[in-house]
Amino acid sequence: MPEAGQKKVSIRIDGELVQLPASHTILQAAAMAGRFIPTLCHFDGLADAGACRLCVVEVSGVARLLPACTTPVQEGMSVVTDSPKLAAYRRMILELLLAERNHVCAVCVSNGHCELQNLAAQLGVASVRYPYRYPKLPVDLSHPRFVLDQNRCILCSRCVRVCASVEGAHVWNVMSRGIHSMVVADLNDPWGDASSCTGCGKCVNACPTGALSEKGQAVEEMMKNTAQLVTIAMRKAVRA
Amino acid sequence: MSRIKLATIWLDGCSGCHMSLLDIDEAILAVAEKADIVYGPLVDAQAFPEGVDVTLVEGAVSSREDLNNVRMVRARSRIVVALGDCAVTGNVPAMRNSIPAAKLLHRIYVEGSQTNARVPNQGVPPLLPQARPVHDFIKVDYHLPGCPPKPALILGLLTELLNGRAATLPVVKFG
Fold first, then answer.
1. A122 contacts on B by Cβ (under 8 Å)
2. d(CA A130, nearest CA chain B) in Å
3. B108 belongs to a structural domain
4. With contacts defined as CB-CB under 8 Å, which chain B residues touch A136?
5. Domain count of chain B?
6. Nearest to A56 by CA among A75, A42, A76, A43
7. Is residue B113 a part of any domain in this protein?
8. Whose CA, among A77, A230, B121, B139, lies 20 to 30 Å from B90?
9. Dihedral of CA B70/B72/B75/B77: which sign?
10. Which residues from chain B sit within 8 angstroms of residue A128, using beta carbons?
11. Contact check, Cβ <8 Å, A117/B143
12. How many angstroms separate the Cα of A60 from the Cα of each of A54, A65, A73, A77, A88?
């Protein structure tokens, strides 16, 4: 959180006046106003990446939608956080995520505790209108304690950011571009061979889906300790 | 008011959705008061009749037979419900989809077999290249996800449809 005395700006969130420091984002302003904006790639205490686009909002005077997580507030800004148009786009984004890889909830370690699955239900996604791609993707079991299942990855990059900025190891990165993008350890090594990995498990707990999990977890058993990791990340962010 | 004609059909699924339908327990009596179950694995009817009001479809479309069936279901039903994750998303049956069907059958029935190693082709319908959700092939009126969908959700949907009302589905999770 920025220091007291920093220059404040006034903006409207769904018509409600909010005053907050100029360094804040629309997402933070919405939280102050008690508005829910769905997110997948945002993680409290980590720098935002604008990867998932679920948090798009309408800003008056701007023709396109803007991601709330990476858009700083400006004096006089007027933001709409929910509308039929936004709801339609957010559903579309979730459907594209579900169609892109193999999210087979019924046999997933994270079934019942998955942010993607929960948001799909919450935002009313009961079917996917886009053709499923059913890609053939690897599962990396080389690490002694953890599993990386590319089938469930949504490329939110929370693992990349928590490893780099909180653990300081920067094991993860996103390789290639577009549909070929893939989270990789070190220089695209098997995770078990990644010498930079400390085995701390922060990536696993930051992961919103079943892409990263602990070994030995069966269907529905993988519960992420998000709250503890947020506490650590927030403290680290304050010091930084 | 004439009685509702209700049908169910079982494509590529585990029958868990039909089990979940039976799990509405004594409420099935209320359903039976409103509707005749005219086709499906729960009754003896040999042919899918014309003029069905509501058909619940369990399972993904995985074989030539599934595809013929689902097209017939659409032609003969007023309302089609995709019941459960296999019908809605492809789910577990679709986990074969990145493997060519011929390679898959060879791996299981030839490489994986100790005796009589051959791919069965008598009396079984040929597989489609992929198992896909029902709405990839026909218009679906309602999607009810879940593996299986909870009995209360099935009952809620059926109650609305059997009373001739448009149903609004509550928040429903995949899986």
1. 171
2. 9
3. no
4. 98-99
5. 1
6. A42
7. no
8. B121
9. negative
10. 89, 133
11. no
12. 19, 10, 13, 7, 19
Identify the burial level of A165 via C-beta atoms within 10 angstroms of its C-beta, where 0-12 means exposed, 13-18 middle and 19 or more buried: middle
Quick: pLDDT tens for B92-147: 999 999 999 999 999 999 999 989 899 998 999 999 999 999 999 999 999 999 99
The closest of A216, A215, A205 to A44, measured between CA atoms, is A205
Question: The domain spanning residue B135 has which CATH number?
Answer: 3.40.50.700
- The predicted complex's ipTM stands at 0.94
- Per the CB < 8 Å rule, is A106 touching B99? no
CA neighbours closer than 13 Å in the CB half-sphere of residue A141: 4
- Please report whether residue B119 resides in a domain: no
> Is A233 in contact with A162 (CB distance < 8 Å)?
yes
Query: Can you tell me the distance from the alpha carbon of A62 to that of A134, in angstroms, rounded to the nearest whole number?
Result: 37
Does the structural domain A87-239 have CATH classification 3.40.50.1010? no
**Could you state, in order of their start, the residue ranges of all structural domains in chain A?**
8-82, 87-239
Residue B116 resides in a domain: no
Per-residue confidence at A3, pLDDT binned at 50, 70, 90? low
What's the token pair of residue A192?
């078990």
CA distances from A4 to A21, A70, B174 (A): 9, 22, 45
Query: By CA distance, what is B91's nearest residue in A?
Result: A104
* Residue indicated by tokens 């304690």: A145
At A238, phi and psi to the nearest 5?
-65, -40
Is B142 in contact with B81 (CB distance < 8 Å)?
Answer: yes
pLDDT in tens, A163-204: 999 999 999 999 999 999 999 999 999 999 999 999 999 999
CATH for A8-82 is: 3.10.20.740
